[in-house]
Amino acid sequence: MKSLEGKGFYIWKIPYCDRGDPVAMVARARAARLTHVLIKIADGATWAYNYDYETKTDLIPPVLEAFHEAGIEVWGWHYVRGDDPLGEARLGIDRVRELGVDGYVIDAEIEYKKPGKKIAATRYMTELRAALPSLPMALSSYRFPARHSQLPFVEFLQGCDYSMPQVYFEGAHNPEEQLEMSVNQYKALQPARPVIPTAPTYSMAGWRPSVDEIQRFARKALDLRLPGMNAWSWDYATRSSHADMWDAVAAFDWSPRQPADTVPERIIDLLNQHNVESVPDVYTEDAAHVTGARTAVGIEAVKAWYGQLFGQLLPGGAFQLTSKSISGRTAHFTWAATSERGRVSDGNDTVSLRDGKIQYHYTYFTLT
């Protein structure tokens, strides 16, 4: 699965986005250096969205084709309620197949907080994944899961590849605090998925985010080493009254350092967190982790290795990077550690990357 990275915008109603003109939309997206867009393709169990029922014309294909020709990914998003989970899954499957989108976003909100919706979410995800086993999927929902415990986050995320929280800091002006709180709560969920947050680019009841706040949001997302960010929405941010919000996202340079440049630091951060649930943020799903004694393949096997390291080999360990060298997508680094079980002074690792995450990791150390 190719990793989703960079800046994206949600599209609600195509006719309200540059009048639905594919050429104009692509020109705007390119100028903003977007890597992806997310278009609403369905609502509930029966409503194919961005479809003109009077003329029987699907508005999405010409826009999707234009974005694809420009090298911009197109994800489809689907607002679901859970009253007819199998119907919603089947509509989502049909729209994905007929449109050829690159990924699928599940927008689950207040309706999924009603009693009995855990079963609905399980049925929905089971049906989806049976038909679309390899399609990248994401959950888009409330920014703070701890405040919405009735919503079946776990049941959705078991079948998703990303979390896309709606970090709409309405009525406030503290984007960094709210984003970090949201990311921490999503990372605490089981299973934890890579987080791609959504920033607000709209106004509500006299409140609106400033250009500075939108760019601080984006900067914080980069500082947290998130793979990307989205904004809601193209429809609002391209109005003349909100153009400053579009420009804020467009002007932000989403250019993190080359992944290999920072991977030794990312691994040391992971080691000092002592949290195996952060492993999927750093490793690919089919990563190989190699020692002199064995080779572990797959994310669960890599998590098991880190569990052994944190729990048995170096419990409570403090890890330090001592040197690194980079060559393309490969990084070599040395490290040291102290723990109640002993010390490491000769840590010596080599990693290679795929799509910004670790595909291969060889580690050597002795415990004294």
**What is the highest CATH level, the class of the largest domain?**
Alpha Beta
Could you give the distance between the termini?
A: 40 Å
The outline comes out as globular
Number of domains: 2
What does this protein structure show overall?
Helix 1 links the parallel strand 1 and strand 2. The chain has two domains: 251 residues, Glycosidases (TIM Barrel, Alpha-Beta Barrel); 105 residues, Nuclear Transport Factor 2, Chain: A (Roll), CATH 3.10.450.50. The strands form three sheets. Strands 1, 2, 3, 6, 7, 8, 9, 10 and 11 form a nine-stranded mixed beta sheet that branches. The model has no long low-confidence stretch (mean pLDDT 95). The longest helix has 15 residues. The radius of gyration is 22 Å and the shape is globular. The protein has eleven helices and 17 strands. Helix content is 34%, strand content 27%. The protein is α/β, with parallel strands linked by helices and 368 residues long.
Q: Could you give a quick summary of the protein structure above?
A:
With 368 residues, the protein is an alpha/beta fold.
Give me the secondary-structure topology:
Blueprint: E1 6-11, H1 22-31, E2 36-43, E3 47-48, E4 51-52, E5 57-58, H2 60-69, E6 73-80, H3 85-99, E7 103-108, H4 117-131, E8 137-140, H5 153-157, E9 162-163, H6 175-187, E10 198-200, H7 211-223, E11 228-232, H8 234-237, H9 243-251, H10 259-273, E12 283-290, E13 295-297, H11 299-313, E14 318-327, E15 330-339, E16 342-354, E17 357-364
Parallel strand pairs: 1-2, 1-11, 2-6, 6-7, 7-8, 8-9, 10-11, 12-17
Antiparallel strand pairs: 2-3, 4-5, 12-13, 14-15, 15-16, 16-17
